[in-house]
Amino acid sequence: MTSKEQIEKKGSSSSSSSSDKSTVSLDKHKRFISNYLYFHGTPEQKQKYDYRGYRSDHQVLRDNHQFIRDDEEDANDQENWEKQLAKKYYDRLFKEYAIIDLSQYKTGQIGLRWRVEAEVISGKGQFMCANVKCTCNDDSLNSYEVPFTYIESKVEKSALVKVMLCYPCSKLLHYTNIKKKKKELKRLLKKRQLEDNDQEEELELGNDGNNNNDDDDTIPQSIKKQKNNNGNDEEEEEEYIEKDITTSTTTTNDRSK
């Protein structure tokens, strides 16, 4: 093996996550126990100590984690060590602001999770944009209360979660609403243009066939303006829709806490 291959092998092994290491350790432990029972165990011991269904702590946390936990339910499950482990991890999370995943914004699907200690120290999610792929930390950040609907243990739940987003990411958050409003705007403008064209044709027919340019004064100024500035009006309306939707759900620009 060359020195380059050794370096690459060392780098790949050091980059493995703690969850992967935990899974490998558990698999190794189960293999040792299985070998011991196979060579030295009695049939009763083999049946009693069946390690095939055992899970790592990471797997237990994934199976028992809840976005918002019920204190009464946790109080009734004091003897369930798996739920107590998940509760202990849940208590270490910071729930004032959330981290948001907007990678699927075009389908209207978002992901939310609470912040960990390292993110609180770095300011991620409060003094820095909460989008996982954004590092914006200027004064354009605003607080948004997001109605979050999710499925947990085959039960649909909902919660109102606060996130800090910059203006570009806030447009991603409201992408589906903005797209819907723009479609309605285009449909309305098209309808209005057809009505104005019909009105203009009726006025032209009433001029007894006179095609002089001076007779254009009979056309109302509103129709002329709509005809000449239709494209500009549409752009202005779309820009207004984006600002209106992104600011209508804004709470306060609270970054001092």
Q: Name the structural class.
A: alpha+beta
Q: What's the Cα radius of gyration?
A: 31 Å
Beta strand %: 5-15%
Q: Give, in order, the helices and strands.
A: HHHHHHEEHEEHHHH
Distance, first to last CA: 55 Å
* Biggest beta sheet summary: 2 strands, antiparallel
Total helical elements: 11
Stretches where pLDDT falls below 50 for ≥5 residues?
Answer: 1-16, 251-257
- Number of separate structural domains: 3
Spatial ordering of strands, largest sheet: 1-2
What is the residue-mean pLDDT, rounded to a whole number?
A: 75
Percent of residues in helices comes to: 40-55%
What is the oligomer described by this structure? Answer: single chain
Extended strand count = 4
Shape: elongated
SSE blueprint and pairings:
Layout (H helix, E strand, L loop, with lengths): L2 H12 L3 H23 L2 H6 L8 H8 L6 H5 L5 H11 L2 E8 L9 E5 L1 H6 L19 E11 L2 E11 L1 H7 L1 H31 L15 H8 L1 H19 L9
Helix pairs in contact: 4-6, 9-11
Structure report:
The protein is an alpha+beta fold and 257 residues long. It has three domains: 1-54, no CATH class; 93-173, no CATH class; 175-248. It contains eleven helices and four strands; from the N terminus they run H-H-H-H-H-H-E-E-H-E-E-H-H-H-H. The protein has helices spanning 3-14, 18-40, 43-48, 57-64, 71-75, 81-91, 117-122, 167-173, 175-205, 221-228, 230-248, and strands at 94-101, 111-115, 142-152, 155-165. The chain has a two-stranded antiparallel sheet with strand order 1-2. The protein has a two-stranded antiparallel sheet with strand order 3-4. A hairpin with a 2-residue loop joins strand 3 (142-152) and strand 4. The longest helix is centred in the last third of the chain and has 31 residues, at 175-205. It starts with a helix and ends in a 9-residue tail after the last helix. The model is unreliable at 1-16 and 251-257 (pLDDT under 50).
